[in-house]
Amino acid sequence: MEALQFDNHVVYIGLTFLLAGFVKGVVGMGLPTVAVGLLGVVMAPGHAAALLVAPSMVTNAVQIAGGARLGELVARLWPMFVGIVLGTVAVGMLAPPGEVRHASAALGAALILYAVVGLASWQMAVPAAAERWLGPSIGLVTGAITAVTGVFVIPAVPYLQGLGLARDDLVQALGLSFTVSTLALAVTLSMGGVLWHPAVLGASLAALVPALVGMWVGQRLRHRIPPARFRRVFFVGLLLLGADLAWRGLA
């Protein structure tokens, strides 16, 4: 990707990460989904995913640092994390994001699925005995979707929500999952040479500023915004965005 293309969209990229950071600050997740979804309107999903790496890594580190059970969560969730890495790298090697036909349509479909699950308030119930085999399976599927679309919320987020974790533990677990997914995605993009393009790397680092500002504002306003109403607006927005991307990708 040429630097000129980033220059043409610099304001759009900045506002996208500002909004994505704000959403993450309010609900504890959503930065990668919002960012990749909105950036997918003006660029290929693979390039959008590359811009996501630095903002996602740093904001997730902030989110993880806010919890108190890091070791316990890693010990419990590591099979899913291994699955995420294997799924992302394997599918990324077989089908690099830049070479996937209708990648925008796949991104749109992922956003639609996530929005429908969110709007339906569907809650997965995960029995403790099933975690040993279900965790790695969830990780593999999440990794495969991540490699193609750059979105790593399905099915990892519903699975983590179904574990019955306390709110603070869930937020930290989500941060861990997103961090592992971002690292795996970075490895895949590095193998394809996308991430280390000077224009991509510079834009990803620059996107840190609006993402952190948006996250800070969102955290400050978290208790002033009705959570249920905000989540509803968030998922409706994702549904419309996903439908638009799917239509564009198949046109």
Give the SSE map.
Elements: H1 3-8, H2 10-27, H3 31-39, H4 45-65, H5 70-94, H6 103-119, H7 131-149, H8 156-161, H9 167-191, H10 198-206, H11 208-221, H12 227-250
Helix pairs in contact: 2-3, 2-11, 3-4, 3-12, 4-9, 4-10, 4-11, 5-7, 5-9, 6-12, 7-9
Jot down its keywords.
mainly alpha; 77% helix; globular; single chain
Rg from alpha-carbon coordinates: 17 Å
Strand content: under 5%
Largest sheet: none
- The N- to C-terminal Cα distance equals 23 Å
Identify low-pLDDT runs.
none
Helix content: over 70%
Number of self-contained structural domains: 1
Order of helices and strands: HHHHHHHHHHHH
Work out the number of β strands. 0
Q: From the helix content, strand content and strand pairing, which structural class follows?
A: mainly alpha
What is the residue-averaged pLDDT? 85
Number of helices: 12
Q: Describe the global form.
A: globular
Q: In words, what does this structure look like?
A:
It is a single chain. The protein is mainly alpha-helical and 251 residues long. The chain has one domain. 77% of the residues lie in helices and 0% in strands. It has helices at 3-8, 10-27, 31-39, 45-65, 70-94, 103-119, 131-149, 156-161, 167-191, 198-206, 208-221, 227-250. The longest helix has 25 residues, at 70-94. The chain starts with a helix and ends with a helix. The model has no long low-confidence stretch (mean pLDDT 85).
